[in-house]
Amino acid sequence: MLNEQGYLRVSIAATFVVATFGIVLGVLSGSFAITFDGIYSLGDAGMTALALWISSLIARSAQREQPYGRLHSRFTMGFWHLEPIVLLLNGTLLISVAIYGLITALATILHGGRLLRFDYAIIYAAITLACCGIMASVQMRANRRLKSDFIALDIKAWIMSGGITAALLVAFVLGQVVEGTRLEWVSPYVDPVVLALVSVVIIPVPVGTVKQALSDILLIAPADLKAHIDQVAVNTVRRHGFVSYRAYVAKVGRAMQAELYFIVPKNVPSRTIEEWDSIRDEVGAAIGGESHDRWLTIAFTADPEWAE
């Protein structure tokens, strides 16, 4: 059974093959829409490769393997923060490419369209659509188990590519049908019009990923996570007779980061380290989600300034 890195490797290989095929058939058919699709796929393959590298770093970091000792000495807080950066870059790239495709399509329409070989174009669209459907379906089933943000974004990319290709296929078939008829004047506009429509449709798709990545980069605390940790802290303060608490929460990629400072009364009877650790275990269990992706700090102090 493949893990996250395995599926990303398969996706990179498939994307590279589809992209190369698209660029070759785009040149042969004279279709800028197909060439655009191939370049779009190449960019996606590059971003998926970067995602694979970051995913591997995060996995190795959790295992603390020796070959990554030098990186650990530089990234002592882990590699989770790189994940939203990659997701932001990937989503922004997809949006930018789609906007460029829209601008190019509009310019082509204004200049009278573009003639192309519909037979090559239809072959490309049919084969590529099948590949996109297979990859998206396989990764959807896999991600029900893996729950990876990287794979989720890769699924969106395959779906977007499939949507582009499906629209191209329909348009190319219609373009070939009208050849030799009184509607033949439409043929030069088929390629740029469908590219413009597809670009308009796919531009909003990565917006959700970009917004979430920005939220993670800016360390904006998810409301539900903050409310849960606040409730755990309130219960702990009440149960152990503490004065108050301070909670600092963030979600960074797949990682949950939380710092809890409990303000204890001054001049309380001293406790052993084991007793304080027991309270930490209690709080950690109440918060839940213990894994390599949870960064939880719990401290106790009688001076509120240490918690600010």
Short note summarizing the structure:
69% of the residues lie in helices and 8% in strands. It has helices at 4-29, 32-63, 69-74, 82-110, 118-146, 149-178, 187-202, 207-217, 223-240, 273-287; strands at residues 244-252, 255-263, 294-301.
How is this structure best described in words?
This protein has 308 residues and is mainly α. It has two domains: 4-217, Alpha-lytic protease prodomain-like, CATH 1.20.1510.10; 223-307, Cation efflux protein, cytoplasmic domain (Alpha-Beta Plaits). It contains ten helices and three strands; from the N terminus they run H-H-H-H-H-H-H-H-H-E-E-H-E. The chain has a three-stranded mixed sheet with strand order 1-2-3. The mean pLDDT is 83.
Please specify the SSE layout and strand pairing:
Elements: H1 4-29, H2 32-63, H3 69-74, H4 82-110, H5 118-146, H6 149-178, H7 187-202, H8 207-217, H9 223-240, E1 244-252, E2 255-263, H10 273-287, E3 294-301
Parallel strand pairs: 2-3
Antiparallel strand pairs: 1-2
Helix pairs in contact: 1-2, 1-5, 2-4, 2-6, 4-6, 4-7, 4-8, 5-6, 6-7, 9-10
Query: How many alpha or pi helices?
Result: 10
Architecture of the largest domain, CATH level 2? Up-down Bundle
Biggest sheet details: 3 strands, mixed
The string of secondary-structure elements, in order, is HHHHHHHHHEEHE
CATH topology of the largest domain: Alpha-lytic protease prodomain-like
Write down the CATH class of the largest domain: Mainly Alpha
Mean pLDDT rating: 83
Per CATH, the superfamily of the largest domain is Cation efflux protein transmembrane domain
Q: Give the amount of beta strand, in percent.
A: 5-15%
| Total number of beta strands | 3
What share of residues is helical?
A: 55-70%
Q: Describe the strand arrangement of the main beta sheet, using strand numbers.
A: 1-2-3
Which term fits the overall shape?
elongated
Alpha carbon gap, first and last residue: 47 Å
Gyration radius (Cα, Å) is: 26 Å
Number of domains: 2
Class by alpha and beta content: mainly alpha
Q: Regions with pLDDT < 50 over 5+ consecutive residues?
A: none
